[in-house]
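Q: How would the structure tokens look for this protein?
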Amino acid sequence: MPNITFTVQDIGGHKMDPKEVEVIFEPNEALIGAVAPRAGFLYPTEPVVEKPDPVSGEVSVLLADTSLMLGDAFYRMRIRWLGGDAGTALMDFPGWKIRPGADDALLSEVIDVAGGGGGGIITPYIWWVGLTEPPSRGYTWLYLDPDNPDLETGPIPELTLGDVVVRW
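A: Here is the predicted structure in token form.
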């Protein structure tokens, strides 16, 4: 499996300290190898979760070579950072398709941004995950307790856990 590397930094170019960051990679569906020696190998959708090095912010993750899979195989990535109010976590859902090849690479080398874009616009890929409203507009809010996703009810009676609310 190729080793994919990158560094997690905040918008100012520093590591996310003191926040705890997790980077989560999930296959878009259960994947199956198409080429020997991995033909017929099944790769379930179990997420791969990595935490950055606490000093450097560097991350190294082993992901399967998607070019050797049947169908349109790729990974989706989520970035979750904790350290806000109790019961909340911010999460990014970049719209990237991550397609590792056979060789080790930088994350930026294996991202298919499908046209990408950006620069100064509100993005629906920044999510607020928690039981309290986001602190400002510009978030997509997932009404859920990140510390207890099996919780059945929340403090806001007009919302159901799992609801997605857009706050622009």
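The first strand starts at residue 3 and ends at 7.

The radius of gyration is 18 Å.

Upvote if useful.
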